[in-house]
Design a protein that fits this description.
The complex is a heterodimer of chains A (about 90) and B (about 290).
Chain A: E1 3-6, H1 18-26, E2 29-31, E3 37-41, E4 51-55, H2 64-70, E5 77-80, H3 81-89
Antiparallel strand pairs in A: 1-5, 3-4
Chain B: E1 6-12, E2 17-23, H1 32-45, E3 56-59, E4 73-79, E5 82-88, H2 92-97, E6 103-107, E7 114-119, E8 122-127, E9 141-147, E10 150-153, H3 163-170, E11 173-179, E12 183-185, H4 190-201, E13 230-231, H5 237-240, H6 247-250, H7 253-262, H8 269-287
Parallel strand pairs in B: 1-6, 7-11
Antiparallel strand pairs in B: 1-2, 3-4, 3-6, 4-5, 5-13, 7-8, 9-10, 9-11
Helix pairs in contact in B: 1-8
The chains are: A alpha+beta (about 90), B alpha+beta (about 290).
Bound molecules: iron/sulfur cluster.
Iron/sulfur cluster (SF4) binds next to helix 1 and strand 4 of chain A.
């Protein structure tokens, strides 16, 4: 069964970009370009810094457990593909 | 990869021009404050140097983007003739790295309020008011802009005092954005990943507490202190450019040598051992 990486607790994100670097390492590179995960600073939030995490589905071909594990604030969860499909039907 | 050549982007605000130069004789200064000191020394000794040029040197080191806690950018400048070495958190260091640059030198003074936008090695100047938030590529950009009297990186990360803000204000620079789109091949040696994971696992040795605050690029701690910036401190760590709070790791010359070696940087043990004195002497000369 396929695994799906989700940024379930994105409000915990501290913007460290370790997830981006982990993904890029798995793709054999160092850098930000072409990363299936991107971390954005949310616009319009002036009082508190809030981050958004953009995930391209191609990330699910990688070692998602490792990506989940590198995040220091446990932003990510991993779900089964079938559960995702059921959620959609509901 | 070799880190012995240093690529520096020079930005002249007075006439809104720029050029990139590759220096093959700056290698032994490694990066960060060491490289900044060498650049400043060279500029001040050059015939064209003028008081009004007031260079501000943003420089990174060979480990930024490659290893955890190497997350700062060195900022070297003079303020009322006093030499200042400040260290800025946030994500600027990785954007400079992924622009394939080692340092950015901003000099001269603009007659009118100006901003600029760096995409790798290309600079576009803007006058007449521009929304800095609209410049650069999302997820790959870093922004320094003015909030009240202070300049902040990403609206959050500051330097230790107002001296840099005053200098940027005098230059009529409203702020700037940098986007880095270069990627580098993952170092081939398995030792790279071993070292990376070993350093990441030593998070308990970072002498600052987690607080859930915005963190610097490549640092999992998220400490409250990151917003305040740093000044002075360990010359080797600040040439890499690592965080002061990671000194237990980056103050260890054998770890530093292993990191540089695995990146194929070309430095010897002796280079690393002799480095602090080399930079200390240069900084003392600059202070005279
Ligand atoms: S590793 Fe976690 S905290 Fe860091 S940027 Fe990614 S999601 Fe945010």
């Amino acid at each position: 069964m396929g695994k799906i990486l989700k940024a379930t607790f994105k409000k915990n994100c501290i913007g460290c970009e370790l997830c981006v670097f982990e993904v890029q390492r798995q793709l054999g590179k160092i850098g930000l370009e072409g990363s299936p995960i991107r971390v954005f600073r949310e616009k319009g939030e002036k009082e508190k810094i809030v981050y958004t995490i953009g995930i391209d589905p191609s990330v699910n071909k990688l070692d998602v457990e490792k990506i989940e594990g590198v995040c220091p604030t446990m932003v990510f969860t991993i779900e089964d593909e079938s559960k995702e499909a059921n959620d959609y039907i509901e | 990869m070799t880190t012995l050549n240093k690529k520096i982007l020079y930005i002249n605000l007075a006439n809104q021009t720029y050029e990139t130069k590759l220096h093959d004789n700056y290698g032994k200064y490694i990066g960060g404050v060491g490289l900044g000191a060498k650049i400043l020394n060279t500029i001040e000794k050059s015939e064209e140097a003028s008081v009004s040029s007031e260079p501000i040197i943003f420089s990174i080191g060979p480990l930024n983007g490659y290893f955890p806690y190497a997350s700062k950018t060195s900022v070297l400048f003079r303020h009322h003739n006093e030499l200042k070495d400040h260290y800025l958190g946030g994500n600027l260091s990785t954007r400079i790295k992924f622009s394939s640059l080692d340092a950015i030198v901003i000099y001269g003074r603009s007659k009118e309020p100006v901003t600029f936008d760096i995409l790798d090695e290309t600079v576009i100047f803007h006058t007449g008011g521009v929304d800095l938030g609209s410049l650069g590529l999302p997820g790959k950009r870093s922004q320094i802009s003015k909030k009240g009297e202070k300049y902040l990186l990403g609206d959050y990360f500051a330097t230790v005092d107002d001296s840099l803000s005053q200098l940027l204000t005098n230059k009529n620079l409203q702020g700037f954005v940098i986007t880095g789109t270069h990627t580098y091949d993952l170092p081939k040696s398995e030792r790279y990943l071993e070292l990376y994971n070993m350093m990441l696992s030593r998070i308990e040795e970072i002498s600052v507490r987690k607080s859930g605050s915005p963190s610097c690029s490549g640092c999992p701690v998220g400490c409250f202190e990151s917003s305040k910036g740093e000044e002075g401190g360990n010359l080797l760590a600040h040439s890499l450019v690592a965080c002061t709070f990671a000194q237990k790791i980056y103050g260890d010359t054998s770890i530093v040598f292993s990191c540089l070696d695995v990146l194929g940087s070309g430095y010897t043990h002796e280079d690393i051992e002799n480095f602090p004195k080399l930079v200390y002497d240069l900084l003392e000369e600059l202070k005279k």
